[in-house]
Amino acid sequence: MTWSCGLLPIHKRHTSKMNSKVGVLIFLLCVTGICVFWRGDVSSYFAPREERPWACSSEDEPLFMQRFSKFAEPFLSVNNNLSEDNFNWWKRLQAESRSFNAYKETVSKMFQMIPTSAEDEASSPDRCRSCAVVGNSVNLKKSHYGPLIDFQDVVIRMNRGPTKGYEADVGTRTTHHVMYPESAVNLENNTHLVLFAFKILDLEWVTKALSTGFSGSSYAPIASNIKANKDLVMVLDPAFMRYVHEEWLQKKGVYPSTGFMALVLALHICDEVHVFGYGADSDGNWSHYWEELRNKKLKTGGHPGDVEYAKIKELDQNQIIKFYRGG
């Protein structure tokens, strides 16, 4: 047996070299496969970052955004108190009959259960924070947007929109889930529950559903308990709803939809906003991607759906957001 300077025997060195070559070949094939997937499923949606005018805009905001001042604090906190004027606007949304003092007492009890301020990871000069806002439109079906949605830093979903069984079109990740009691679903422990409260009962619900159990009633069934991390609960400021209705929608409709408020919220917490799953189907029906439509005249009720959709297209045209229309 011939040895060489303390290395492996020569016949074993040949075997080792062959194994190394096979290993390198397998590695290169894997890398190639990943690159093909990346180009085919994710990066084809993107222009290079420096060519994406909607990404991490400069200090000079486009003219379109100059029409809107950013809302200082989108979420409630112990130091962010609602004015009585804003309360009186909010209480009309769903005919709230209780007083401003009842509201304040309920909020005080709520902050004994959830964080006293809504802390969220902020963007920084050296980091562009991207959001995927995922609506529930039927236009998501067969869109294959799933990988692109999961690629974003923040993934905002809302109400009862499921991911299981629809992963290819809607993705799998959820960092923030917008809901109200009548649309509540269980959440993973690392997902923020973002409550859009339309009445005092909604604030009572989030307090009790995460502790002793809720026993009230509403216009639709409400879960008495919900699985969610109480340390990640965030509650939208009712004044933010008014801001969206008056500044963004010019008071059209009774009040904004959950979906449109979630989109405007994303503009406040992210540098780069990608919007999916909004708009009516080809017949003008506002249906969901997981349901077979029975009501062929399904519209948006008190929400100004057409006005909101026109505003989304305007935001896209002005390169404030990137809107993916789907099928």
- Report the radius of gyration as a whole number of Å: 25 Å
* CATH architectural designation of the largest domain: Alpha-Beta Complex
Count of folded domains = 2
What is the percent of helical residues?
A: 25-40%
Please write the CATH class name of the largest domain: Alpha Beta
Poorly predicted spans: 1-22, 24-52
CATH homologous superfamily caption of the largest domain:
Glycosyl transferase family 29
Helix tally? 10
What's the shape? globular
Order of helices and strands: HHHHEHEHEEHEHHEHE
Mean pLDDT: 81
* Strand count: 7
What profile does the largest beta sheet have? Answer: 7 strands, parallel
Distance between the termini: 69 Å
- Side by side, the strands of the main sheet go 5-4-3-2-1-6-7
CATH topology value of the largest domain? sialyltransferase cstii, chain A
Strand residues, percent: 5-15%
Instruction: Give me the secondary-structure category.
Output: alpha/beta
EC number: 2.4.3.2, 2.4.3.4
Pathway: Glycolipid biosynthesis; Protein modification; protein glycosylation
Enzyme class: transferase
Family: Belongs to the glycosyltransferase 29 family.
Describe the overall structure.
It is a single chain. The chain is α/β, with parallel strands linked by helices and 327 residues long. It folds into 2 domains: 1-45; 49-324, Alpha-Beta Complex (sialyltransferase cstii, chain A). The chain is 34% helix and 9% strand. It has helices at residues 10-42, 63-66, 84-90, 100-110, 146-151, 167-170, 200-209, 238-248, 258-269, 305-317; strands at residues 130-134, 154-158, 176-179, 192-195, 233-235, 272-276, 322-324. Strands 5-4-3-2-1-6-7 form a 7-stranded parallel sheet, sandwiched between helices. Helix 3 packs across helix 8 (238-248) and helix 4 runs parallel beside helix 7 (200-209). The radius of gyration is 25 Å and the shape is globular. It starts with 9 loop residues before the first helix and ends with a strand.
